[in-house]
Structures are given as C-alpha cells and as structure tokens.
C-alpha cells in the first residue's frame, strides 16, 4: 500500500484553491495534493466540492484564487485538452463518449492512427480490439458504442483515458508520473466489471500513475486507496493515510457529525419499529400482484403489499427487480398474471390507469424518467396532478402554491424558492421533488426503485426517514434496492428475486442481511453483496 | 405513390438522441446553471442507439431504393426520360443543389442547420457576375470571399457565442438577400456575363457531362473522404453526437463548428458562381427556398437532423431523387408548375413517414 516513494513532490496540487460561483463558494482555500503513484480517495457529500475540484484539475473550470500546480510548476489549464496534454485523463461519472460512433472511434477520437493524412481504420479497429480485450470487452469494435451496456461503456471510457495517458507518456518520454482521475467509476458497473476496474487500477498503480478516485462506496475506497482527502462544504477537512482512519471517523468527517451520534442511529435512518401495525389478523392487501410474467426478465412474481407496509424487493442486478416494479405499474406489458389494487383488477400495460387507480412509481433513473430539468420545482411537483389542481382546464395557482408549499416543507426540500429550476438542485433534493410529485397524486401504493442511489449520505438518510413516515401514514410501499442495509432496516417484509422468480420471502425477524444473502445466493450460487 | 418504399426516416425522430438532459452535473450543489443547450444523450440506452443508426441506414438505403425505382419506372413509361440529353440535364440541375447540400450535410451532422445558403447562393451568383467584369479570377474570388465570410460569421456566432444556429442563419439569410437586392437596385439590374473563360466553367462539357457536374462530383468525393476518413470528420460526428462529451474529450468543437459553417457558405457561394456562369448572368431571383431543398435532400439521404450520423453519398442520392421527381413531373406535363411543389412536398412526407414506420417495425422484429 503506502510506499514511501521519493514522493512529496506532488504531481498535481492546488494551493489555497478557491472557486466561486454565483452566490456560493464551491472551493474555499483548498490545498490538495496528489502524489505520484498513489491511489487517492476523494470523498465528501454532494455539494462538498468534489466535482468542482475535479473540474479544476482537468481544465473544465479555472480557479478564481490560489494556484494549480502540475509537477511543482504553476499551470493554468484553459481547456480540458490542455490538461489531457499534460497527461491528466479523466473518466466522468456519466459516460462522456459518443454513443452513435463506433467503439473503436470512441477509443481513438482525436488521436486516430493516420496514414497519408487519412484515418487508418484497419489499424484503429485492430488496436482498439486488442486494447479493449484487456478490459474484458470482446464486442465487435465497429459496433456503435451505444449498443454496449452502460457498464461496458464505462470500461471503454476507462480504456480511452488510460490509453491516452500512456501514449502521451511515451510521446513525452521519461516515465514521468501521470494522472488518471476517476469520478464514481463504479456507479454503473456490475461486480465483475468492478473487479476488472480494480485490476486496471492495480496495473496503473504499478506503473507509477497517480489515481484520484472518487466514490461513495467505502468498501471500495478501503480496498484500493492509499490516502484520502475529505471535502465538506467546499473546504478540505482532512487529508491523510486511509488505513489510519476508521470508517466511522471518515463518515463523521464527511457528514460533520459526531461519531457517537452516528453509532447510535446506525448508517440508515429508518426507525426501529416496523410499521405493519396490523399483525396477524392483517388487513386486506392494498395491492396484489399475482403470478406476473413479462418476458424476458419477469418470469413468475407474486407480491402482496398491505397498507402501511414497506415491502423490500431484493435480488442481484438483472434478477428482475426494476422490471417487476415496472410490470406492476404497467410500464412493461404483462404476458400473464394480474395486478389487483384495492380489490379492482388493473388493465395490463396501462400506466395511466394504474396511476389513476393510485400506483405511483419513482423510477431508478431520475434524469431519464422523471425530472424535467429546466422547469421549476413547483412545475415539476404539480406536473402529475394538474388535472386534480385545475378547474375547467384552468390551473389554480393558489391551490398549486398550497400543495407545493406543503410538500416542500414535509419533504424538507432545500431550495431558494419553489421557482428555482430543478437542475440547480442536488441529487437528493431532485429525488425529493420527484417523490413530492407522486405523493401529490395521493397514491395508495408507492413503488420506489433505488430511491437513494447516487445521492449523498445526508440526503439518503432523509429519504429513508421519509419512506418510513409515509408508510406510517398508511401508504403501501415497494422498496427496490441493491443495498442490503437499506432493505433490512427499511422493510417489514422482503421478497427476494432470482432470475425473475420469487426465491424467498422473509418477514419480521427473519429479515437479516444473511437471510437475504442466502435467499439471493440460492443453493449453490455465490453470494455477492 | 408508385410503390412501397423500403425506407425509413427519423428525420424528425423524437427519439433521435435529443433526450434533454440536465446540464453537466447537478451533483455538486455548487455548480452554476450552465447555459449550454440541452445536449443529446450521453449513454443512451442501447436499443435506442441501434434503432437510430438502423433508421439512418434504412433511410439511406430507402432513398437509394426509391431513386432506382423512380428511375426504372420513368425509364419504361416516359419515352423521353431515358434520353442522354435528359439524363445530362438532370445531372446538371442536380449539381448546383448537390454542392450546396454537401455543405449542409456537414452542418447538420454537427447538430446545426444553415438557413442562409439559399440567399448566399443567389448572392454568390450576383457577385460572380460583378467579378466577371475583371476576369475569371475575380468572378470566383469575389463570391467565395464574401460568401465564405458570411459562413464564417455564422460559425463564429454559433460556436463562440453559443447562439442557436436557426436564428443566426435566419439572420444571415435576410442579410444576404438584402445585400443582394441593394447592389442590384432591388433585383431589377441583372448583370450579364461576357467573360468567356468564366462562362465555360458553367457551360462546357467534359466526357459528355457539364463542368458543374464534375465540380459537384469532385467536391462530393473530397467531402465524403474528409467526413469518413479524417480526424476532422470524426470530430464532426462527435460534435453532433454528443457535444459536451466531445468537449471533455478535448476535441476542437469550436473549430469544427466554425469550419462547417464557413464551408457551407463557401460551397453555396461557389454553387452560385457556377449557376451564374451557366445562366450567363447574375440572376437575382434564384435561390429562394433552396436552403429547404438542401435540408430535405440531406435528411432524405439518411443524415440525422439531430446530428451525429450521416453520409455524403446519402445526400447525393437525396438531391438526385428530388430532381428526378421534378423532371418526371415536367415530362408528364399538363400540370401547373405550382403543383410540382405540392407533389415534391407530399413525396418528401411520404418517404419520411414510410421510413419512420419501417424503422420502428424492424428492430422490434429483430429482437
């Protein structure tokens, strides 16, 4: 791990770096150092300034105050390409490639091998195929990039970044330390792909390339990182060896809360009590999904949800969790099976009918499926309930204001005003806006697909607390999550899916990490958490 | 229409990559709301991308199939259609539009649009007629310089100031048309050209084809090569495919955009000069609506209106298809010439609708 290289001459650093945006100080006197050959974790909640710092290091933004130094020399990267020429390459959280172009073209864009001034396609395809094989990608490189899954696209981005880096290096010679910056590279990867990524990181590490690794996943950080820098509210609150730091200390620095406080409440903020108040002589289920089949992902799933109950849906990636939720909503057509809500059978494949009957769904990808980024918070919230808020086709502004105000308070949406554009909010607040939108249609059942993915720990806690509250108010909740802790703490009952079928159902005290893992793993399959 | 057209068009495909995405990153609360226009998707879902490219391919093939079909039917049914003279005529008529549409192809692939080309084309013709008074060199240089400059300004405004191309080029459409009217006393002065070496550019033939046709062929070959086989071409696709990503990849997005608009102006001016040489005068009334013909040809030829995919060959097919159809309508005769537009419009719509339906149907079956 932490070798004492003849380091201390940072390959990249900011000295008292300050970056100001309208109204906010995104980076406040941050002196950050990245040493040659280290894997450096950068952590912090959303809004802590991580992305801003990365963008400063990669030439997307320029510092307003302080200095950026590259190998000790003050530099100013005016554009991303300047940073790239200096041997700093970046993989962004969202794949920043061109989906319509071929995989090979994406790897080489801007540095295509040429012959007589023309792009040498044969060579480009050959080299891209060779290169990508090291990253576990064996697809035809002439295919459009967009035909790959998001995880594989991320690997292509990584291959591109590293390759750019290596070629720049050989071009300028002298094995000088280079930098690869990874902004949440694993957020869309499957476990197998994560392993490949770590192998690549290991390889880069051995070559003496410095890696700046941003992630919310503590397990990963502790596994691969040497040092850590913690940002909070634009300030650098800690930097040092990661091994010396206990997890709970790291979390407390990120959150700015007491260690003891976190201990007491655990890492999730679900209440202790289970809310399926009605125990044995339970009430009628509000939603009954019976033998749902929607090929290819959903093969046979039955789920009942009672009022006031949070039913967790567990399973590996690809087990059909999201698809089940979407099938219940009607967004996926059913091949067979029925969805009964409050005693009435819903027509298959009709989202409108399901929504009117009282099912709402918070989709996994809030950017694609929900948020209208350039509309205001108000508009985003009332979007789904306009018919209810209008009379003779005219939308009542007073009633809108009332509803919006109620939900903004209840969900603790942090914004300057209801008229602020949603795109300006943090991920967690965007998620709350979406939640408000569906709550305001007064649903009976709420389907939540990964409601806390990609939002910071603080907001996560609030969303979890909210789910709890909503269930206590009598709402039936289906909680799809890939985080076991969230399921264990948040659900009254957990239905475990495997390959599109119900592999087990746990309730009450049976709901534990291990029990879920056992059910997921089945008889002989390996459990992967 | 005569036959089912195996073709597809997402010309106005609502899915063609323009899913609005929130700008850059809403992750850091501190991010300022950037003012870039909503960009095409980053990691689009795979079926969507496949469908889009498939549609584009189908569209191109479809346009080619439609062209062959129309040619075959007309050849058999219309006695004069297949004559060498008529073929030459179609080629010549197509050459001017092809040169303009070539520039438009580049612009549209970057995700832009150039509405100014019709006016610039007419202006190029008039300027060529002026320049021809001082010889063939001026007859070419004057229109190329002025029209290239208009294109360059378009490009700078679009790329540097981030103004919407629609508005910028609409403004230069008005500007160029106004300039043309001003220097020709409201279009009443048509200057005839007497410089014989300049006239020969538009009127001479080589191997049986008019010189403008050869110009068009050579330019399209070069254009196709540049687009498919150079780094610049790759950057053009990348810019239109996902501009933000292209920027982050360090591609010269601004330079690419400036270049394509300048190129478009330059080519429109050159087409205007050739037209003037062919007509022996700087005709002031031409070029109205030519920008729309060029856009239609580009789109029929399989270039995505949202940018990121397209070919020069497709555009050439689109241009030919359009001119063959209007030639056929002329041949049939007896039709008020105004109906030509009606039929052309209806045909465009039909092609696009059929293509769209096919592009929706096929990928589903393949899955």
UniProtKB/TrEMBL annotation, chain A:
Residues 12-258, 281-524 form the ABC transporter domain. Keywords: ATP-binding, Nucleotide-binding, Repeat, Transport. GO terms for molecular function: ATP binding. It comes from the Bacteria. Coiled coil: none annotated. SMART domains: AAA. It comes from Luteipulveratus flavus. This is Sugar ABC transporter ATP-binding protein. Gene3D superfamilies: P-loop containing nucleotide triphosphate hydrolases. Pfam families: ABC_tran (PF00005).
UniProtKB/TrEMBL annotation, chain B:
Residues 1-46 are annotated as: Disordered. It is a multi-pass membrane protein. Its main location: membrane. Keywords: Cell membrane, Membrane, Transmembrane, Transmembrane helix. CDD domains: TM_PBP1_transp_AraH_like. It is found in: Cell membrane. Residues 1-12, 29-44 have a biased composition (Low complexity). The chain crosses the membrane at residues 61-78, 90-109, 139-159, 165-185, 206-227, 258-280, 292-321. This is ABC transporter permease. It comes from Luteipulveratus flavus.
